[in-house]
């Protein structure tokens, strides 16, 4: 028979055995040291520093793709409105309140997914609509425009509104 003080045996009446699973051999509760916690925090900060810019970049790209899709919707809505009324309108609200509505109410409000939409001018034969980032470099970096030719143009111009005819065709 092995002696109880040998072979790692801890008697039940000892204070170490009574403290449970997290008890250490010296009688103190086991836990993480300050250095271990600081290392864990440093690893979490590193992961956040890597992942947050990627997340913002993806969101930024999604906002710009949504702005291009919205500009296509505005161009189609203007064409439909013009076919019915023999002129283009200068109001997004008119396009959404027509019967049938040509635009959804979210886009007609003028702000959608980080972009501000506006119809700058409209007449019998022409219209010019723009989309500008609500907060430049946060919600987007490119401004977009569309006219009666349905050509969407884009330009990174510091968030300033586009001037008619300015910019390159968007993808």
Strands, helices and their partners?
Layout: H1 15-18, H2 34-85, H3 92-97, H4 105-108, E1 111-112, E2 115-122, E3 127-133, E4 143-147, E5 152-155, E6 168-169
Antiparallel strand pairs: 1-2, 2-3, 3-4, 4-5, 5-6
Describe the structure in your own words:
With 171 residues, the chain is an alpha+beta fold. It has helices at residues 15-18, 34-85, 92-97, 105-108; strands spanning 111-112, 115-122, 127-133, 143-147, 152-155, 168-169. The N and C termini lie far apart (84 Å). The relative contact order is 0.11.
Strand content of the residues, in percent?
Answer: 15-25%
Oligomer: single chain
Class by helix and strand content?
Answer: alpha+beta
Major β-sheet strand ordering:
1-2-3-4-5-6
Largest sheet: 6 strands, antiparallel
Shape: elongated
Radius of gyration: 32 Å
Short description:
Helices cover 39% and strands 16% of the residues. It has 171 residues and is an alpha+beta fold.
């Amino acid at each position: 028979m092995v002696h109880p003080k040998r072979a790692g045996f801890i008697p039940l009446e000892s204070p170490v055995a009574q403290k449970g699973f997290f008890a250490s051999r010296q009688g103190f509760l086991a836990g993480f040291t300050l250095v271990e916690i600081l290392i864990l925090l440093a690893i979490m900060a590193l992961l956040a520093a890597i992942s947050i810019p990627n997340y913002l970049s993806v969101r930024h790209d999604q906002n710009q793709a949504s702005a291009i899709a919205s500009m296509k919707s505005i161009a189609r809505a203007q064409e439909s409105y013009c076919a019915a009324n023999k002129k283009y309108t200068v109001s997004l609200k008119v396009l959404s309140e027509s019967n049938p509505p040509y635009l959804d109410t979210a886009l007609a409000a003028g702000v959608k997914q980080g972009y501000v939409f506006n119809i700058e001018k409209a007449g019998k034969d022409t219209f010019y609509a723009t989309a500008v980032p609500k907060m430049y470099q946060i919600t987007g970096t490119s401004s977009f425009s569309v006219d009666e030719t349905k050509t969407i143009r884009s330009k990174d111009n510091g968030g300033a509104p586009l001037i008619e005819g300015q910019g390159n065709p968007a993808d």
